[in-house]
Amino acid sequence: MLAGFAFGGSGCEIVEGFLVAVNIQGLVGQYVIPPTGILQDLCTEFITPDDYLDSDFSDEINDVQIYDIRIKTEGAYNGTVSGEIRAMRDDLLNPQVVLTFSGSWEDFKTPQSWLQARAGNPSHISPQDGAIAFLINAIRERRPLRICADISASPLPVPAGLAVTAEVFGQVRVAP
Amino acid sequence: MMVRMQRRFLSVSFPLLPVVGMLLMPTAARAQSDLDKALEHFDAQTVKGYIKPMADFFGANMNAGWYHSADIPVTGLKIEVNIIGMGSLVGDDQKTFTATAPPGFSPATFETATIFGGKGKTIRNSFDTSLTYSGSDGIVDATLFPLAVPQLTVGSIYGTELTLRFVPFPDIDAFPKTTYFGVGARHSISQYLPAVPLDIAAGVFYTSFEVGDLIDFKGISIGAQASKTFVIATLYGGLAWENSTMNITYVSKFPGGGRVDIDLDGDNSFRFTVGAGLSLGFVKLFADANFGAVTNFSAGIGVGI
C-alpha cells in the first residue's frame, strides 16, 4: 500500500482542464450628478478585458454567466432620480439599453437589483430584454465595453457629492 | 488586496516524505497554484463547502498510523524508524456540497462540486433564464486521499514510549515554509494486568501542520490499543476519540469578500482500528484499516529494535 501511495497507486491526481468560476470585476459605471441635475450620454472609458477579467487565468473563456445588475445612489438628497443605463462594445455603433430606472433617491440607497425586478418584487428598475445576451456575447468575445448613462435628478438645487453607480455581476469559467 | 500567490495549499495533500514528495512535486506545485487561484474567487460560505472534504481526509490521515502493536516493554531500549502511508476513501457524498446562490437568485441553493468533485454546476434563475450562476469544477480526482510521513518511536521507560513525526520544508521558490510536526505518547496498561492474554496500551497523539500563512491544521487523538503476537505476526486494534481542525486564511476577490479566516472541523471524531503486522528481524511491516466517519487506511515499513 505504501508503494502504491508513493507511485500514485492511490489514484489521486489533478484533473486536467478543470475550470474555475472567476468573478468579473470592474464592469462598473459611476456617474457624478452635476449641479444641473441632468447627465446625458455620459460613458465610462472603455473597460477592457484586462480590467474585467482576472489575468491569473487563461484567456480562453469557456462560458460566461451574468447573475445580476445593480443600481445604487450615493450621497444625501431629498429628491427623485431616473435614467437609462446602456452598454456599448468597441466594435459596434449601436449601444444596448440595459435597464431604465426611476424612484426616489433614497430608494436606491439599497442597491436595486435586476434579480429582484425579474422575481416580481417591488423594484425601481426595468430590465431590458436582450441586455444580458449582449453583455455575455461581448465578454465571451473579449470586447472592450463602455457603460453609459442618461440620468435626471430633481428638484434643483442638486447638492454636490451625489453619484449613481451601475454594476454588472457575473462570472467566467476559465482554466487556471 | 493581494493574495499571497506563493502560498501553496495542496502541499498538504501530498506526502511530506522527501522522496515521495519529489516524485509528486511537479503535480503538487501546479495543483497548489491552481487551488490558490480558485480559492481567491470563493466567499467564505463557498470555500467551506468546497474544501470541507479535504479537512475531513486530512484529519483522518493525520490521526492514523501511530501504532502497530500494543506491546510496550516496561523497560529496555526501543528505537524504531518508520515510514507510514495513509489514505482516506473518497466517497460520493464528499464530491458535492450545497452552495449558496447570490442574494435574490432562484434557486437560492444548489448542489455543485467540491474539490474532489467533477464539473461545477451551472444554474439558471427561475424568473429570468438569461441569468445564470456557476460553481467551480473539482480539482482532485481521487479514490483514496494519501499522505505519508516519517516516524520515530523511542522507549521504554516504565512502559512508556514516545513517538515523533517531524518534516520541515523551508520556503523555496513557489513553496511557502511548511512544517509538519506530530508527537505522541503511549503507556503500557497490560503491565498492570498480567493475567490478560493481550497486550494493552493507551496513548495520546497530537499533530500540527502549517503551510505558510494559508493553512494551519491541528489534530489530536486519544485512545486505547490491544494486540496479540503470534511468532512473527501481530494482530492489533484500537479505539480512539479524535478531533481535527483546519484553519484557512486568504483574501477573497468575491464581491464583498475581503479577508476570509475560517475553521473547518474534520468529521472523524471516533475510529475503530484493525490491523496486522509482520516482524522480520529488524524490519517491521504493518497495515490497518480505520473505520469512523471517514474510512481510512494506513500502512508502513520500519526498522528498529
Oligomer: heterodimer
In round numbers, the mean pLDDT of chain A is 91
Please count the beta strands of chain A (DSSP E, at least 2 residues each).
11
- Contiguous uncertain segments of 5+ residues of chain A: 1-8
For the report, how would you describe the main beta sheet of chain A?
A: 5 strands, antiparallel
Instruction: Tell me the Rg of chain A in angstroms.
Output: 21 Å
Distance between the termini of chain A: 32 Å
State the end-to-end CA separation of chain B.
Answer: 54 Å
Mean pLDDT of chain B: 86
Top CATH class of chain A: Mainly Beta
List the total number of helices of chain B: 2
Largest interface: A-B, 44 and 59 residues
Helix content, binned percent of chain A: 10-25%
Report the total helices of chain A: 4
- Secondary-structure element sequence of chain A? HEEEEHEEEEHEHEE
Question: Could you say which overall geometry of chain A the principal axes of the C-alpha atoms support?
Answer: elongated
* Integer tally of domains of chain B: 1
User: Structural class of the helix and strand makeup of chain B?
Assistant: mainly beta
Return the CATH topology of chain A: Jelly Rolls
Q: Which range best describes the helical content of chain B: under 10%, 10-25%, 25-40%, 40-55%, 55-70% or over 70%?
A: 10-25%
